[in-house]
């Protein structure tokens, strides 16, 4: 199971018991979109090789400004 925690400067990730941070600039470079327009599913695809993408994707802007 992977846990993602979003804020304005990046994402805290817990993947297979390992905690790390993905900075906003790294995510934008990897996905080639502005950070607020990226979805949680796109970030999950960076972390996991074959993620379970159930549910509707949410844009980061919707997650951090709710």
Series of H and E elements: EEEHHH
Rounded mean pLDDT score? 94
Low-confidence region ranges: none
Q: How is the biggest beta sheet arranged?
A: 3 strands, antiparallel
User: Cα-atom Rg, whole angstroms?
Assistant: 11 Å
Q: What amount of the residues lies in strands?
A: 25-35%
The 3D shape can be described as globular
Looking at the chains present, what oligomeric state does this protein adopt? single chain
End-to-end gap: 24 Å
Compute the number of strand runs: 3
Helical segment tally?
3
Protein topology:
Blueprint: E1 2-7, E2 10-15, E3 18-23, H1 24-31, H2 40-47, H3 60-64
Antiparallel strand pairs: 1-2, 2-3
Pfam family, one: DUF5800
Task: Summarize the model shown.
The protein is built from 3 helices and 3 strands; from the N terminus they run βββααα. With 66 residues, it is α+β, with helices and mostly antiparallel strands.
Task: Write a concise keyword list for the protein shown above.
66 residues; 3-stranded antiparallel β-sheet; 3 helices; globular
